[in-house]
Amino acid sequence: MTGGSLGLRSGSYGSLQHLQNGSFHFQPQYVGRKPSKMLPSGAREKEKVFPLRFRFLCSTRFGMLILVVFASLVFLSGFSTVNKDAQESNSVSITQHQHISQIPYENGEFGQNLPYIFPGIEVEQKDVEGTTTGSGENNRHHPPPAFHHLCENFAFPPPPPPNRKRIGPRPCPVCYLPVKQAMASIPSSSSPSPLLKQLNYVHEENPIKTEPHGGSEFGGYPSLKQRNDSYDIKESMTVHCGFVTGSKPGLHTGFDIDEADLKELEQPHEVIVASAIFGNYDVIQDPQNISRAAIKNIPFYMFIDEETEAYIKKKNSSALVSSNRIGLWRIILVHNIPYTDARRNGKIPKLLLHRIFPNVRYSIWIDGKLQLLVDPYQVLERFLWRQNASLAISRHYTRFDVFEEAEANKAGGKYDNVSIDHQIEFYKKEGLTPYSEAKLPITSDVPEGCVIVKEHIPITNLFTCLWFNEVDRFTSRDQLSFAIVRDKIMAKVDWKIDMFLDCERRNFVYQVYHKDVLDHMSPPPPVVHPPPLVRPPPRDGVIPGNRRGAVIPENMAGRTPARKNPPKRGRGGERRSGSRRHRRVGPGFRDNNSI
Prior knowledge:
By secondary structure, the chain is of the alpha/beta class. It has helices spanning 11-21, 43-49, 52-57, 60-88, 179-184, 224-229, 259-265, 292-297, 306-315, 342-351, 353-356, 376-385, 402-411, 417-429, 458-473, 478-490, 502-508, 515-520; strands at 94-101, 116-123, 131-133, 140-142, 175-176, 198-201, 236-239, 256-257, 269-277, 300-304, 325-326, 329-335, 360-366, 370-372, 391-395, 447-455, 498-500, 509-511. Strand 9, helix 8 and strand 10 form a beta-alpha-beta unit. The strands form five sheets. Strands 8, 9, 10, 11, 12, 13, 15, 16 and 17 form a nine-stranded mixed β-sheet that branches. 30% of the residues lie in helices and 15% in strands.
């Protein structure tokens, strides 16, 4: 990875050369002194013309010293000028984040619990000011035309060599801007929402189920006709999007939230980070490497149910009593959850954050099994703002086809096979085909949906609403329904989803096992230390030779105590060759190991 690829200023060296070749350049030339014809020839006459002090100044050594001092002053002056110029211009520095990932590059196999240290490259740029260009809805915050993004020349290094001990997917380097520059990249206006400008949601106090596969009461039992109409995108639409009953989401709708928490969730925020744990399924992971600006401006919300709350209080009774916080997470307790399946309950905040947070501009969703390791501003800049995208999600690390994903779900027992087959057959009739290169520039039909980076605009809100309706109607495996919803919307409007590499996702989140897996893992064997050897006290006093000044018992006086054989060391009683202890050898005795 070269410095030029990371945006290093090529003019750094050029500026210094310019000073060396310009007016600041000083190259002393030493010329041998020639005797002058005007000087007297005698030594006494020279002393009369040149005083002693002036003659010392004209000596060769002192002249060279003056030239060296002068050259040093010129160099320091030029260096300060270069340094000042570098501070005023865009300076670049590179730092690295290193941490240990539990799931080690993509190799087509499931990851193992092996450490893999990888860099997250952060490119620094100082004093960069953006300007507003364009007009209308597409009026976004862009840098000056002459500005080149510091990460535009970033390229992936070659993948690590295959290693049997590190199989499965691994993280890969990602180029992030520093937090200040990432914050300066926030668009000044919202992204355009193609065609759709106003999105409304169905409200019905007593929804009635009219079809055998019509979803749930929480989702409002949308019929197949209503489902099909929701893909007919217009300027103003009304669709099913959960929370059908009640006056507002979280209030007598199922997935109920305390009124004090609801007031907080309705507060306006530029960015939020959200996650959820239901059914005591995961262990809360506190985010790391979060900047002070993000801690001050970005709230972190963790939704839990009563079962998870009971477990937390059992482990730490004071964790939720004082401030409803665990680390950076603000805990939101949910009552009356609508589904018996904890994973399906988790899809409510995952896909319907825009309904729970009506006044939020950007959101980052991470599953409860993940730990955020990179600042949210840097994640948004890298995966949304830099790509001019409104929704970003990582692709699956090894599968790109929905039909292969369905078979993998059945083989892994993720859901009952009958329900998976019913869902896939239904999508086949709607025209879903296996993934192929004909779908390019679409790179995958299967997401790794544990992270969603989203701008809350009507078209992205419609997408997540319709995606949730598929999860409500069919299986809770959202990887199976992602492609059909995306393709139907993209067939109507010019809109796309940025699907970044899964190894890039693994760069900014740390994936741990679900709690049930952790509970069944055998703990490491305890370290057993043998009890210390205690010698029984002698009958007549202290053992002779035990220490200087020991008392010798009367029955042992005048006797030489018998020498005990030392304990055998190593195999077969042989002494280790690396031992530092040596026997004392008497005169005339030659050790076989001695030289």
